[in-house]
Amino acid sequence: MEDLFDIKGKVVVVTGAAGALTGALSKYLAAQGVRLALLGRTEGRLKALLAEISSDSPDSAYFTGDVTDKDSLEGANEKILSKFGRIDALINGAGGNMPGAVIGPSQSFFDLDFDQWRSVMDLNLGGVLLSTLAFAKVFEKQKRGAIVNFSSMAAQSALTRVLGYSNAKAGIDNLTKWLAVEFAKKIGEGVRVNAIAPGFFIGEQNRRLLLNGDGTPTERGSQVIAKTPFGRFGQADEICGAVHFLISGASKFVTGTVIPIDGGFSAYTGV
Asked: Of 46, 51, 82, which Cα lies nearest the Cα of 64?
């Protein structure tokens, strides 16, 4: 009987591959025998990640590229197709935030730095759009392929402070559904587009916001944990199972979904 969960040998592009969540995901996928095309802006971090996964996935490789730069992505796509001959899945994991797109506790909406807000939109939402234009083009020819976008709990409801990031991730939810319909109707059921929406995981960008120096939760961190039924932050490897499912044959009738990975945060009103 066919193992629908088998992803060994698949060629998977991961953007922002050396991040906290995407790095853990890349290591997991390599252990499943996936052939990874690791994409990012910082060559040193990509080299280090490739070295960690090389024993599990010796055919994997890294490619430098900027998800906000169309020419950079198209150049990386040419190199990836030259090496692997195909792309089976695209994981749009690149993203981030900027201080000026955040409304601090002592600020108001009118303190927003519009240029930084626009940069956050370009990186998160524009980066997904440009990466999909570059790397998913081959899906038209192949008539198959899977895309997994990174959304966020910030897209589901209004989180205070993170204005630009929330706006961008809400756009990713809509883009995920729009592309799912577009590709299904124009290319066929072999091309699927879904997203995961991680809850609160500790990374370098949010560590000081959520944790004190001694590792205890900050006031904001405590608010997050209080609204998370599991009563803790997520661990990076806890996104891996959902992504595995979404790029495998086990999800061949699944498209246009956004799967929360949040310990119940999105289900709980706090009461």
From this structure: 46
> Is residue 208 very low, low, confident or very high in pLDDT (cuts 50, 70, 90)?
confident
Return left, alpha or beta for 70; rule: phi > 0 is left, psi -120 to 50 is alpha, else beta. Answer: alpha
Q: What is the pLDDT of residues 27-75, one digit of tens each?
A: 999 999 999 999 999 999 999 999 999 999 999 999 999 999 999 999 9
Element (H, E) at 135: helix 127-135
Contact, 36 vs 60, CB < 8 A? yes
**Dist CA 150 CA 25 (whole Å):** 12
CB 16 within 8 A of CB 40: yes
CATH of domain 11-199+234-259: 3.40.50.720
Average pLDDT of span 120-135: 98
Catalytic annotation on 165?
A: yes
pLDDT tens string 227-238: 999 999 999 999
The pair of structure tokens assigned to 236 is 């990076």
Sign of CA pseudo-dihedral 75, 150, 250, 18: positive
On the question of pLDDT at 1 being above 80, the answer is no
Catalytic residue among 28, 62, 165, 268: 165
* Residue 110 DSSP label: G
Helix (H, G, I), strand (E, B) or coil at 195: strand
The CA–CA distances, whole Å, from 3 to 8, 120, 136, 156 equal: 11, 40, 25, 34
Edge-to-edge strands of the sheet including 191-198?
A: 61-64, 35-40, 11-15, 89-92, 145-150, 191-198, 258-261
